[in-house]
Amino acid sequence: MQIEGAAGGGLVPWAVLAGLSEQGESGFSAGASLTDTGDYRLAVAGVQWSFDDRVELSLARQSLELSALESALGLDDARLDQTVFGAKVRFAGDLVYGTAPQVVLGAQWKRQHDFALPDALGAEDDSGVDVYLGVARLILDGPFHRNLLVTANLRATRANELGLLGFGSDRDDDYSFVAEGAAALFLNPRVAIGAEYRQKPDHLDAARESDWWDVFVGWFPSKRISVVAAYVDLGEVAGRDGQNGFYVSVNGNF
Amino acid sequence: MRYAPGGDVGSVGGAEAPTAWRMIEAKSVGASAPPTFAPAAMLVVALLLAACTVPRTHDATLWTALGEGPGVARIVDGVIRRAHDDPRIADLFAETNDAYLKARLIEQICALSGGGCEYTGLPMDEAHSGMQITRAEFNWFVEHTRDAMAEAGTPIAAQNRLLALFAPMHADIVGQ
């Protein structure tokens, strides 16, 4: 599960479907993650439901603790919460077989719950919709005779820092088109290593934002459990530069 | 998410050679080096190769990596046993002549992996004609194949190479 609740690595939704559902089956999964850069801490809890190896629906709650800004803002508990409802549909191709890679269309409906700070920074709205087109392919017998998953999205978004800082701004209220992608090499069926990159829009003059990237290790002790640990570099977030730290997530399939 | 069959999260890893050894193996069968592979690293690999040439001089083929006849027979036995034991796909194998299937599968793997055999069975689309095999059933069978290889001690690299050789047959097997 990535930080917006969709199936993915850490920062980026992957164009694969959550859970273990095959054709004619449905699957349920849940996950939680923590991203900590020292100045900020983002906690996410989410659930996913997938059906027929075709559709994924997800619901996530994000909670960003702004510990570094508490004194500056004169607050005891500076926190920004957001709810994300996600949907992803596989409409063409296949992850593994045939000539065409898997293609998905995804959307994320986001509602920010603490709009005072985003409002003060110049954000226009407390809710918005991201739409993305994603492709994914598992390359069998890739480098080092290992299987390699590659995935990429093109996203249309008005979200500032995922939407945690609201949507749009008085300067730029249009949708931005951003690219994001990930690659994961399966060293064996239980361990994968990889990297992700996520381009970001930059609509708020008062809180410039940076592209994000991470490098990760995934561990699959069983078919039902996955654990991902990553080093993340978030660049500048809400006026603070050099936001890098760790990400960890635990996910279960039921 | 579902990684099947490549990184299938449920498969049990087989006996694994040390990483360095697997890298050497990758080199020795002519895998192209990624562009980031520095000359210094190539030298290290060459030195390691020179240091461990004894068991690997003649085994460039996948057939050898799979354990040749006895190794492949062990894998195929495992696959057929798992297929019969899996209630989701057991019906597909209820009428199967196991000895015939085993012989054809060994032959086919031998032919694909450089063992020098000729496959004498039916083409894949004819062999699965009328069975209406679904994507899910195909994926479960691939899982059993990976598990059987892991059980037989097949190295991960050889598992991946073999499954990649079978992958193009997907279209001739599913939905026939």
Describe this protein's structure.
The complex is a heterodimer of chains A (254) and B (176). Chain A has 254 residues and is mainly beta. In chain A, 4% of the residues lie in helices and 55% in strands. Chain A has a domain at 84-245. Chain A contains two helices and 14 strands, in the order βββαββαβββββββββ. The radius of gyration of chain A is 18 Å and the shape is globular. The model of chain A has no long low-confidence stretch (mean pLDDT 94). Chain B is built from nine helices and no strands. The chains are: A mainly beta (254), B mainly alpha (176). Chain A binds chain B through residues 7, 14, 16-25, 53, 95-98, 138, 140-141, 143-147, 149, 184, 186-190, 192, 220, 222-224, 226, and chain B through 1-13, 16, 19, 22-23, 25-26, 31, 34, 134-136, 139-140, 146, 150, 156-158, 160-161, 163-164, 167, 170-171, 174.
Spatial order of the strands forming the largest sheet of chain A: 1-2-3-4-5-7-8-10-11-12-13-14
Fraction of helical residues of chain A: under 10%
Strand content of chain B: under 5%
Which pair has the most extensive contact?
Answer: A-B, 38 and 39 residues
Helicity level of chain B: 40-55%
Low-confidence stretches of chain B: 1-37, 47-59
The CATH architecture name of the largest domain in chain B reads Orthogonal Bundle
Low-pLDDT segments of chain A: none
Q: Kindly name the structural category of chain B.
A: mainly alpha
CATH fold descriptor of the largest domain in chain B: Globin-like
What's the gyration radius of chain A in Å? 18 Å
How far do the termini of chain A sit from each other?
14 Å
Name of the CATH superfamily of the largest domain in chain B: Globins
What shape does the CA trace of chain A take? globular
